[in-house]
Amino acid sequence: MKKIIAVVTILSSTLTLGQSVEFNVDETVKTNHEVTVNGKKISYTAETGMQPVWDDKGEPIAGLQFTYYKVNDKKNTKEDLRPLVISFNGGPGSASVWMHLAYTGPRTLNISDEGFPTQPYGFKENPHSILDVADIVYVNPVNTGHSRPILNEKGSFDKKKFFGVNADVDYLAEWINTFVTRKDKWLAPKYLIGESYGTTRVSGLANKLQNSHWMYINGVILVSPTELGIERDGPIEVANRLPYFAAAAWYHNKLAPELQNKPILEMLDEVEDFTIQELIPALTMGGFLDAEKKKSIVEKMSYYSSVDEKVFLQNNLEVPFNTFWKTLKIDDGFTVGRLDSRYLGLDAKEAGTRPDYNSELTSWLQSFTPAINHYIKNELNYKTDLQYNMFGSVYPWDRTRNNTGKELRQAMAQNPSMEVMIQSGLFDGATTYFNAKYTMWHIDESGKMKDRLHFKTYESGHMMYLRKADLKNANDDIREFIKNSLPKDDAPIKY
Known about the structure:
- The protein has 495 residues and is an alpha/beta fold.
- It is 34% helix and 20% strand.
- The protein contains 14 helices and 16 strands.
- The strands form four sheets. Strands 3, 4, 5, 6, 9, 10, 11, 12, 15 and 16 form a ten-stranded mixed beta sheet that branches. A two-stranded antiparallel ribbon has the order 1-2.
- It is globular and about 70 Å long.
- The relative contact order is 0.14.
C-alpha cells in the first residue's frame, strides 16, 4: 500500500497562520482492549487513523479518520460473518464523536446520570455497548474530526465533491466500499446508523450502496431523524410543534395538574390526537377559521403547551420555537435548550425573541471535547497535530435534490429483509419526536412496509443516550433490532 502524505495549511477566519500540518491519508494504529458488556468480558481491537477517499482516476482526494472496533473471538472462526455497524453523526459538519464516545461504543463519558458535565472529565467502560452483537466503525466525513481534504498546489480543494446532500452520499459510499473490502466484511450483515443529519446520510447511503455498489444493507437506524426531504410545510409544520411543546412543558411541571399527573406518553397520546384531528384542520382554514372555533383551538393549544393564549393569538397560532425556548421558564429566570429542553440557560436579559445561546450544546461540548481528544491520543494511541473538529466548516452545503426519504423507501422495496428503526427523545426541540413520527408515516405512503418500520421514544433529548437510563434502553433497542433483523440461515430473501 503506497504511502500518501498530504499537507494541510491551517487557516483561521482572519489570517493565515503560516504553518502546515503533514498527515498520512492511509495509515492506522491498532490497540487491544477489553470491555464488560451485560456482564460478559469482551476482548477487542481498536483501529484508528486515516483511509483515503479516491477520485475516479484512483488518486486520493481526502483522508477520512475512522475508528474501527473488532471483537477478538478465538472461538469464532467466522469473523467475516459478524455484523458490522457503520456509524455517522450529523451537522452536516459534525464529527462522529457523539455516538462514538457516549452511545454505542465500548467507552462512554464521565457525566451525571442525567447527562450533565462532571469533573474530572474523561471516559469509562460502557456496560451497554452493542459491541457484543456487532463490530462498529465510526466515520468522520471531510473536515470533521481529523478528516481533511487534500489541497491542490493553490492550497484549495473542490468543495462540490464533498459538501452537499448527494456529493456527501456519493463519496462516503465509495469510502465504505473500500473499507468493507479491506476489512473482508462483504459477507457480514451490515447496518447503518446515523444521528440528526446523519439520518439523511444513511438514508441516502442505503440506496446508493445497493444500487451503485451492490452492497445490501440489513438495517438502518435513524437517531433523532431530520425530515429526509419529506415536505411538511404550512399547517402541518406548525401543528407538529405542539406535541413537543407539551412534552417540554410536562418535564418542567408547567402543565395543569390533570395533565401533569399523567404518565408522559399517555398525556402525549391525548395531545397527538388533538393535533391530528382538530389542530391541523383548523390551521388549514387560516384567517377564515370561525371565531368560536379559533377560540376553542387557542384554549386547547395553551392548555397543552403552557404558552399563554395571547401569545398564540399574537402569532396567528404559529408560536416560533425560539419564543417557546425563551419563555417556557421565563418566570423562573431561565431559557430551555433547543436540542434537549431539560437543559437550562441564563440570558443577559429576560426580554427578547430567542435564547442567547444553546444551553444544551455548550454543556455537551464541555463534556465531549476534552474526553475525545484525550481518548484518541492516550487510549487509541493516535498522534497527530491536526485539530479534532467537533464541528468543521462544510460551507456552502448544497441542500438541493434531497430525496433521501424516497431513496430509503426504494432501498427497502428492493431488499425485503431491510428493517428501519427510529429513535427519538421526547424533549428534543430540533428534530422533534412527533416530526420523526410524521417522517416514518410518510417514508412509505403505500403502507405496505409499515411492519418493517419501528419507532422508539425516550425521556430525554436529541442525544437520548446521555441519560443513564436511556443509554441502557436505547442500546438494548439496537441490540434487539440487530438480532431480530438477521435473516435465518439459508432462508430465501424474497416477498
